[in-house]
Amino acid sequence: MIADSRTNTIYFSDLLRTDERYSVTFNDLKRVLGASGMQYDFLNKTKDIWARDYMPIQVSKDKFVEFRFDPDYLQGSGRERRELKTYPDIVCDDLGVKTVKSDIILDGGNVIKSDNAVILTEKILLDNWRTYNENELIRQLEILFETDKIIIIPKDPGEMYGHSDGAVRFIDNDTVLINWYFKTFDEYFRKSLLDSITEKGLKYEWLDLGIAGDEADGYNWAYINFLQTEDLILVPKLGIKEDDIAFSQICKFYKSYADRGRIFQVDSKQVVEKEGALNCISWTIMK
Q1: How confident is the model over 83-98, as pLDDT tens digits?
Q2: Number of Cα atoms under 13 Å in the Cβ half of residue 167
Q3: Which residue intervals of 63-186 are DSSP H helices?
């Protein structure tokens, strides 16, 4: 697998720089990436800014798996929903990226990967139950991702998209970082979440903001949805008191980046207001 920590190229939807609703976030991204010396490019023929979800998953340098981008939150007959659906094969053809196509329904935001493991929420089971039973689905994922370490974690019941990139990230191949607010969930949920991780031989740490569950404000879930490449980590900045705590925590857990001064904050409030953050708006690959 190509973990985030091995990627060296960032893409954003071209809509991110042309839609005035995201001008503050894009301008801050441009400032930080320019100052850091990190190159980036844009995806054409997209219908919204959430590049992570519709773009393929890179498994090896030349293998990109294109899943069916057919999320339930974009289904229906409404014109607005149809106009928001990006067709990944059109975008990939424009880029010249050849893909391995799968009939499995899966958003890229529900794929968190290390060099040898993939974490998804149980949303993938719900989206594909008509076509695959659980054992068949996991076997197909093992073949496509070329790993036998497929980890299914419970879905946050309050989050409609069912994405794992708002819940967990890999610190390294052996350790998972878990978003702070899952500590506030009931004991059954926490046990299910932690068991699904530890049963595969992984350790975990908490991204702990030092706050209680009733202090969730609609934004402070988003810090774990950072953008990571081999050279830098970009952490959402939201203009709230938890900004500095989250930044300090991520510097602690990703010490090799912090020691090189390669962790930066980016004003992300405009995209977080739309229920995504920096991992959601980026597609990172190894070239």
Answers
A1: 778 999 999 999 999 9
A2: 29
A3: 79-83, 88-95, 123-127, 134-145
Average pLDDT score over residue span 177-194 = 93
Distance CA 176, CA 198 (A): 10
Q: In terms of DSSP bridges, do strands 282-285 and 63-68 run parallel, antiparallel, or are they unpaired?
A: unpaired
Nearest to 113 by CA among 149, 87, 85, 144: 149
Query: What is the distance between the alpha carbons of residues 199 and 278, in angstroms, rounded to a whole number?
Result: 29
Question: What would the pLDDT profile of 32-74 be if each residue is shown by its tens digit?
Answer: 999 999 999 999 999 999 999 999 999 999 999 999 998 888 8
Residue 57: left if φ>0, alpha if ψ -120 to 50, beta else—which one? beta
Q: Pairing between strand 112-113 and 100-105? A: unpaired
Q: Using the 8-state DSSP alphabet, how is residue 204 labeled?
A: E
Write the pLDDT tens digit of every residue in 95-115. 999 999 999 999 999 999 999
Q: CB atoms < 10 A from the CB of 237, how many? A: 23
Q: List the beta bridge partners of residue 205.
A: 177
Average pLDDT, the chain: 93
Could you give the CA distance from residue 99 to residue 68 in angstroms, rounded to a whole number?
Answer: 12
The SS3 assignment for 220 reads: coil
* Total residues belonging to the chain: 287
